[in-house]
Amino acid sequence: MSRMRWIGEITSAEREARASGKLVLLFFQSQGCGGCRKTETITFADPGVAELIERTAVPVSIRVTENQGLSASHRVEWTPTFVLTDGDGAELERWVGFLPPEDFVPQFYLAMGLAAFHRKMFKEAEGAFEWIIDNRPDAVVAPEARYYMGVTLYKDTGDASHLKRTWEAMNRRYPGDFWTKKASAWS
User: Fold this and answer.
1) CATH code given to domain 100-187
2) I need a labelling partner for 34 at 20 to 30 A (CA). Which of 8, 81, 119, 122 fits?
3) 55 near 9, Cβ under 8 Å?
4) Among 2.40.320.10, 3.30.9.10, 3.40.50.620, 3.40.30.10, what is the CATH number of 1-98?
5) Residues 6+ apart with CB under 8 A from 130
6) Strands 23-29 and 81-85: what pairing?
7) pLDDT digits over 118-167, tens only?
8) Closest CA to 165 of 144, 182, 146
9) pTM for this predicted structure
């Protein structure tokens, strides 16, 4: 695999996550999975990806055939599957499929932002969404990040004007996008 430090056992990873305040990244993979091999040899081998994961998460690689109970409990139906959990094992976010580094990084930031949002850690969520908006505004996940930035700002402050401003910004930047259509309720 990559040069990242992988934890071999979930209980140890959860303990480390609780002690460090990080999330746990579960990487479900299978033998003969082309996307899994590309994730290992291309995405996880990328120094920027490795640094991001090691700074924010405790990574665990799980072979689905050898861990069928765990795979079933996390509803893994296809590989690769990525699951972010907290230090107690509660699933916070997930995504499926190979992504090259330039797409994996914004997807990971989106997942971290949503994980923080689910835990009502709004400032942390805002930071993750803002990273995507500022650094990867053309990423496939950018409209979703912009949408959730507005929702997060509203939830954090109670100020509904954030929702209208979000829709206006999305309508200018991402007209016709699926997430812009959702935000049109705030127009």
Assistant:
1) 1.25.40.10
2) 8
3) no
4) 3.40.30.10
5) 149
6) antiparallel
7) 999 999 999 999 999 999 999 999 999 999 999 999 999 999 999 999 99
8) 146
9) 0.95
